[in-house]
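Morning. Coffee machine broken again, so started the prediction first thing and wrote up yesterday's gels while waiting. Chain of 343 residues, entered below exactly as on the submission form.
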Amino acid sequence: MDPHIINLPRKVIVGNNVIDNMFDVCSELGVKKPLILADKNTLKISGERIKENLTSLNPQTEIVKEASLAETERIKNTVKDIDVVIGTGGGVVIDVAKLVAFEKNVCFFSVPTAPSHDGIVSETASITDKGTKISIKTRGPRAIIADVNIISNAPYRLIASGCADIISNLTAVYDWELAKKNGEYFSEYAAKLSLLAADIVMKSADTIVERKERGIRNLIEALITSGIAMSIAQSSRPASGSEHMISHALDMMNSNALHGEQCGIASIGIAYLQGQDWKKIKQTLQKIKAPVSFREMGIEKEMVVKAFLEAKSMTKRERYTILDEKPLTRDKVEQILRVTGIY
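Came back before lunch.
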């Protein structure tokens, strides 16, 4: 059996006001030349606090404007002499921070301000290149500092989106198990971790909606667990199947919905196709107050049909899923949308 290398975070801190531990984390992990990346909003929410905490290290700071290769290049060529990139924000900032750190060959610290998807932990950066969204393999974070106070106060839509992204692990793992039959590498341990994350979020729906600390902690820890599952698998397989292909296809058609929202809705339809309990997924998303219909997200029906029919070819992902096992026709897609009510 070939060697299997697993890269995991060295330090994970989840709790109230843990953002103020940044200097201690840097000292413990031996980094002294930080670059802080944030957007205009998260600079005020968390970036300035990190900068103040690291005053003695004289940190550099850059504002991230978009998650693009051009922006990554700009930042990479602007900053000099760093040994860690601290990304604090949502998906855009975190993805750019991952890629800058990877290309500068330094470590990356993830400091999320919203729990909108599991990209806060994964090794994959979702970046646009001349308008096309691409996924780039980088390295996972050396440290994760998840401040419950800050994350609890994120817009609720972002919290619900993170829940939906984790719940879609149910269909992703099913697809991965199908691929196992075709000889693809499959980690039972990583798959179980991914499903555990989904189960915890589903059972925590009530406390998450109420923004209770235990519920938000469960969501954060589920996102971290899902990211660790991907690190163990050395692939996004435990948390990304045909539902993510559909989401990526919608992105390429300029959908304005959030990543997690699209994955959650798509997972209802995919669960129906897989023969899973799609009603339970839909009911849980409703309880969490996440969207359960592409219509309510303002996405045109023809875009949705095209995303289902052409997800595999549009995303150019060579991975076996239910879309290979049960190839779709337009009539079948119409049936899925009608029966499940996702349009």
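The chain has two domains: 11-152, 156-340. Going to sketch it on the whiteboard this afternoon.
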